[in-house]
Amino acid sequence: MPVNALFKPFHLGHLQLPSRVVMAPMTRSFSPGGVPNSKVIEYYRRRAAAGVGLIITEGTTVNHKASNGYPNVPQFFGEAPLAGWKKVVDAVHAEGGKIVPQLWHVGSVRRVGTEPDASVPGYGPTEKLKDGQVVVHGMSKQDIQDVIGAFAQAARDAKAIGMDGVEIHGAHGYLVDQFFWEGTNQRTDEYGGDLAGRSRFAIELIQAVRAAVGPDFPIIFRFSQWKQQDYSARLVQTPEALGEFLKPLSDAGVDIFHCSTRRFWEPEFDGSDLNLAGWTRKLTGKPTITVGSVGLDGEFLQFMVNTDKIAQPASLDNLLQRLNNDEFDLVAVGRALLVDPDWAVKVRDGREQDILPFSRDALMTLV
Ligand SMILES: Cc1cc2nc3c(=O)[nH]c(=O)nc-3n(C[C@H](O)[C@H](O)[C@H](O)COP(=O)(O)O)c2cc1C
Question: Which of 70, 174, 191, 231 is catalytic?
Answer without folding.
Answer: 174
